[in-house]
Write a structure and sequence with these properties.
Blueprint lengths: L15 H11 L1 H18 L24 E4 L5 E4 L10 H37 L1 H16 L2 H13 L5 H10 L3 H9 L4 H14 L3 H8 L4 H9 L4 H24 L11 H10 L6 H28 L7
Antiparallel strand pairs: 1-2
Helix pairs in contact: 1-13, 2-3, 2-13, 3-4, 3-7, 3-8, 3-11, 3-12, 3-13, 5-7, 9-10, 11-12, 11-13, 12-13
Length: 320
């Protein structure tokens, strides 16, 4: 016979992650944005592996500026179908948008990972140590904030490009390509400032909590307390800001590619495709419209997802 207090009649417990997911599911815009982002990632990374998707760098000079949905036969006798049309060199715009998305998304996520690593460690160390060390470290952040990001990235790109004969640089050039790894390293190296401030603020409040005093009383090392107890408890704000950093990094990569400092031809990113489309807009507006629409929709989706995660992970929202 069960009692009102038996385990069979008790309510099931719920974790913070499950509560956040339930709140996120109520946000239809954030959920739709998540689905669109997954769709774009699958399309850019898996669709090009399917048979029938043409090489994005294959040129057909006799098939220039064909409209969307065009079928034609090249001088080599090959039958081609252009879903989004062809560009000034007869290259397939659809496949170039897919491969360009690979580059833009890769730079966005890897550069965000670099900025995440630097910002979290820097901010956590500054907030935990405190005192004069914290003051000096934050003044360094303030100084870097005053410098224009674009100029810093250009200087870093120029400096690293001059070191092409150095063995580590040669290895990275062969592994990722001469411009791709340089982009996510340089962009990530200047996008960590806000992340460090967010983590520092979280650590300043967390280091006075009872569980940190208990960890110190157990004789745990400062490094263990920092990496095993403090940093994991800052993951909520870090996850939210990470989803907002990815579109910011992708925009910066697009700006650099638009200026000719990003991915070099014949490779392309969404930014370089938009640049090409802007130059040839009078000949074929589709060269600009297709990559711009997909790029803009991806950025909007990432921002909407970030807003949804912020609401879902906000502890105050659980009281509503």
């Amino acid at each position: 016979m069960s009692t009102p207090y038996s385990s069979s009649s008790g309510e099931k417990g719920s974790s913070l992650g499950r509560d956040a997911w339930l709140r996120l599911k109520k946000n239809r815009l954030a959920l739709a944005s998540l689905g669109f982002i997954v769709l774009v990632i699958v399309a850019c990374f898996l669709v090009p592996l399917l048979p029938g998707i043409p090489d994005p760098n294959a040129t057909h000079p006799d098939l220039q500026f064909l409209g969307a949905g065009s079928s034609a036969r090249s001088m080599e006798g090959r039958d081609v179908f252009y879903l989004f049309g062809s560009d000034q060199l007869g290259r397939d715009i659809f496949s170039r948008v897919l491969y360009g998305g690979r580059v833009s998304l890769t730079v966005g996520f890897l550069a965000t990972f670099v900025s995440l690593t630097i910002g979290v460690v820097y901010g956590a160390f500054s907030g935990y140590v405190g005192g004069r060390t914290d003051v000096v470290m934050m003044r360094v952040v303030d100084i870097l904030y005053a410098l224009p990001f674009i100029v810093i990235v250009i200087i870093l790109s120029t400096y690293v490009s001059a070191m092409e004969d150095w063995k580590p640089v040669k290895f990275l050039n062969e592994l990722f390509g001469s411009s791709l790894w340089l982009l996510f390293v340089c962009i990530g190296a200047v996008e960590w400032l806000t992340m460090s401030r967010i983590v520092r603020g979280q650590v300043l409040s967390l280091k006075r909590q009872e569980f940190i005093d208990a960890a110190r009383s157990l004789g745990l090392s400062q490094t263990r307390i920092l990496f095993r107890h403090l940093i994991p408890n800052t993951l909520g704000p870090v996850i939210v800001y990470t989803t907002l950093t990815v579109p910011a990094v992708m925009r910066l990569e697009a700006i650099l590619s638009f200026l000719g400092l990003g991915v070099q031809p014949p490779d392309a990113s969404w930014g370089s495709l938009i640049k090409e489309g802007a130059d040839l807009m009078a000949s074929d507006p589709g060269l600009l419209v297709y990559p711009a629409i997909i790029f803009g929709a991806t950025l909007f989706s990432l921002n909407f997802l970030g807003d949804g995660l912020r609401d879902a992970l906000d502890p105050k929202s659980s009281k509503d």
